Amino acid sequence: MEPTQKFHHRHFPTFLHWGRHSWNWYRSLRLVEHAVVTVGFLLLVGWGVYFLTLSAPAYFPSGSYVVIPPGSSLKTVGVILEERSVVRSGWTFRQLSRVLGNDRNVPAGVYYFGRKEGLVRVAVRLVSGDFETTPVRITIPEGTTNKDIARILYDKLPNFDRRGFLQAVDGKEGYLFPDTYFFMPSDTTEAILSVFNNAFHTRLSKLVKQIDASEHSELEILTMASILEKEANNEEDRRRIAGVLWYRISIGMPLQVDAVFPYILGKNTFEVTLEDLKFDSPYNTYKYKGLPPGPINNPGLGSITAALTPIPSKYIFFLSDLDGNFHFATTYEQHLSNKKKYLDPYF
Questions:
Q1: Which helix (H) or strand (E) is 66 found in, with range?
Q2: Cα separation, 130 vs 112, whole angstroms
Q3: For residue 133, what are the contacts with CB-CB under 8 A and spacing of at least 6?
Q4: Cys-Cys with 255: which of 14, 284, 285, 287 at CB 3.0–4.6 Å?
């Protein structure tokens, strides 16, 4: 029995030792598992909170402007931002803005959002009035009408008052100088017109002496220039046509130019009918002699210069073939011959 007792005496403590070690290891493993689950849960909750409140909405208006009207309350601003999908919750924006120290309103103006931004970034920007706006480059082509210009500005400027602009430029056709301009998105109609006015007077100041020395008023020069703008594409042709048109006026002959019909009827040269030629309008140069009462578009400097420096001639008629080349004639018979030679084969 002694060997047996010795055997139990020798191995029993070893068994107890390994049992306790396994239990401690098991408990440690369970604690780690609990910790991992807890951390994972907290991360999941945190991600959910971030996604539902702080992250940028799926349809964030990247590359867009958002206008905050003057005097808007935080609540109103929150509604605007939520409706434009800048933030997920206008209420959350309002609370965060208060935490940032603003419990009344945000600086009014036009805010530009070039990329997706989270709620915190949006709130910081609006509370501090960080508009991130840059001047908008807008090119006004030569020969555009005031209505064309209003459309161009409306497409480029988010806060543009199209109706107010058209009311302000009523009767000012020809005085909005075609050029490349830089406007701020928040510019008012008054500010935009001031830029146009300065550009017009700056450019025309170089021609004041020529205008004064001519036999025509500034309005007459601008009106003729607006016709030339639509009749030809280069300065040489415009000067030659100017010589013909001024000569027609001097001999009491109607100008009879088709360039006026896009302005009064919205039709180009090839759409004008014989009935259209009888349309009663002071701008109809077939019906009324002399220049129209005013410009039919806003001419560029080249056309204004051409109106001031016509090439004198005895030509009375001219036409343009399908390649854009002009053919002049001193008699109606010669004009009919040119028409038959250069145009009739194509119609």
A1: strand 64-68
A2: 9
A3: 65, 109, 110, 111, 112, 184, 185, 186
A4: 285
Q: What tokens does 284 get?
A: 């109809």
Report the interhelical angle of 119-128 vs 90-99 (nearest 10°).
60
Q: How many residues does the chain have?
A: 347
**How many angstroms separate the Cα of 130 from the Cα of each of 99, 101, 228?**
18, 16, 47
pLDDT per 10-residue tile (average), the chain, 347 residues:
47 51 62 54 44 77 87 93 94 91 82 90 93 89 97 91 96 96 88 94 93 95 97 94 97 94 85 87 95 97 97 93 91 94 74
CA distance linking residue 53 with residue 96, whole number of Å: 11
Q: Domain 64-128: give its CATH code.
A: 3.30.1490.480
Q: How far apart are CA 318 and CA 342, in angstroms?
A: 12
Residue 21 neighbours by CB under 8 Å, 6+ apart: none
* 238 close to 231: Cβ distance less than 8 angstroms: yes
Give the domain ranges of the chain: 64-128, 136-205, 207-346
Same fold, 64-128 and 136-205: yes
Answer yes or no: pTM beyond 0.85.
no
- b or e along 72-100 (b: 16 or more beta carbons within 10 Å of the residue's beta carbon)? bebebbbbbbbebebbbbbebbbebbeee
C-alpha gyration radius of the chain: 39
Contact call for residues 230 and 297 (beta carbons, < 8 A): yes
Class of domain 136-205: alpha beta
Rounded distance between C-alpha atoms, residue 146 and residue 176, angstroms: 7
